[in-house]
C-alpha cells in the first residue's frame, strides 16, 4: 500500500486511472473507500484518493485543520511529481478543496464540490453540538450518550450512520476530530470566493441537514461562472446518487477540456 510521511503524519493513498491529475477527498469520519465508491473512472483522468489525516489508514498527531489537510495534499502532489491539479471532495473534502484553491491558486485548475457543509463560517450551531456529542460518546464508547443529544434525536432518521462509528476502531481512536473539525472555517467570508477563476462544479441535494442545500446555492452565487446541479439524496436513492455523480464528473472534466 502506498504511503508518504509528511507534516508529522503518514498519509495513505490510492490511485485510479492515468492522465490528468485529480485529487478526490472524502468527508469527515469516512476514508478513501467513500471516494473510491463514488468515483466512476473517467478516461484520461488520474484520480488520487488519499485517506486524510486521522482517517482510514493514515495516522494522526492530534492536530487537524484545513491548512494541515491542504498541506498534506500538496505534499502528496509533490511526492507524485504533480505541479497542478484539479481537486474536489465531499463535505470536509470540499472544504479542503476550497481552502487549497484560495491559498494556493497556482496549484489548482478546477474544483468539484459535493455536499458542502460550510459556507463562510463554522458548521451550524446544531451540527457543532451534534458532532460534539458524537465525539464525547465515542470517547467513552457509550452510544447512549449520543441518544441523549437533542440534535441527534431530532435528526436520528437522517443521521443513522453515526451509530456505525461505534463499530469503527479508527473513529473510536480519533474521536476528538469530530469535535474539532465542525468548528473550523475553510474561508472567512463568501466574498473571498469571488477570487476563484477556474472551472467549478457544485453538487447539493435536499433532505440533508448536515449539508444544507442552500449552502451549495450560496457558494454557487459567490463563485463567478460556477456550475450548480442538484443530485439525488444518497440516503433515499443511493443508485441514482451515484449515477448523478458519474454524469457530473464527466461534465466537470469536459469543462477542464479533458
Walk me through this protein's architecture.
With 258 residues, the protein is of the alpha/beta class. Helix content is 37%, strand content 18%. The chain has an 8-stranded mixed beta sheet, sandwiched between helices.
Number of strands: 8
Q: Specify the helix fraction band.
A: 25-40%
Strand proportion, as a percent range, falls in 15-25%
* Radius of gyration of CA atoms, rounded to a whole number: 17 Å
Helix and strand composition category: alpha/beta
Shape: globular
Low-confidence stretches: none
Main features:
alpha/beta, about 35% helix, about 260 residues, 8 strands
Task: Compose a concise summary of this entry.
This protein has helices at 32-38, 66-79, 92-103, 125-140, 143-147, 150-154, 169-173, 177-180, 213-222, 238-255; strands spanning 3-6, 9-16, 20-25, 45-50, 85-90, 108-114, 200-204, 227-230. The protein is of the alpha/beta class.
Amino acid at each position: 500500500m502506498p504511503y508518504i510521511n509528511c507534516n508529522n503524519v503518514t498519509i495513505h493513498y490510492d490511485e485510479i486511472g492515468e492522465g490528468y491529475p485529480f485529487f478526490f477527498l472524502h468527508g469527515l469520519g469516512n476514508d478513501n473507500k467513500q471516494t473510491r465508491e463514488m468515483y466512476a473512472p473517467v478516461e484520461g483522468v488520474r484520480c488520487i484518493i488519499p485517506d486524510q489525516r486521522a482517517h482510514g489508514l493514515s495516522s494522526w498527531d492530534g492536530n487537524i485543520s484545513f491548512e494541515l489537510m491542504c498541506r498534506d495534499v500538496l505534499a502528496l502532489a509533490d511526492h507524485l511529481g504533480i505541479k497542478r491539479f484539479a481537486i474536489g471532495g465531499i463535505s470536509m473534502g470540499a472544504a479542503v478543496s476550497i481552502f487549497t484553491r484560495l491559498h494556493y491558486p497556482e496549484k489548482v485548475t478546477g474544483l468539484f464540490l459535493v455536499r458542502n457543509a460550510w459556507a463562510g463560517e463554522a458548521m451550524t450551531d446544531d451540527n457543532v453540538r451534534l458532532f460534539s456529542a458524537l465525539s464525547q460518546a465515542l470517547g467513552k464508547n457509550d452510544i447512549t450518550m449520543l441518544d441523549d443529544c437533542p440534535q441527534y434525536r431530532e435528526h436520528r432518521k437522517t443521521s443513522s450512520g453515526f451509530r456505525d462509528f461505534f463499530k469503527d476502531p479508527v473513529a473510536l481512536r480519533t474521536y476528538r476530530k469530530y469535535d474539532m473539525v465542525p468548528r473550523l472555517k475553510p474561508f472567512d467570508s463568501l466574498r473571498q470566493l469571488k477570487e476563484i477563476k477556474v472551472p467549478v462544479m457544485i453538487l447539493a441535494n435536499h433532505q440533508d441537514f448536515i449539508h444544507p442545500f442552500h449552502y451549495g446555492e450560496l457558494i454557487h452565487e459567490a463563485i463567478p461562472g460556477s456550475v450548480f446541479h442538484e443530485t439525488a439524496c444518497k440516503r433515499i436513492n443511493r443508485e441514482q446518487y451515484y449515477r448523478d455523480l458519474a454524469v457530473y464528473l464527466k461534465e466537470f472534466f469536459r469543462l477542464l477540456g479533458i
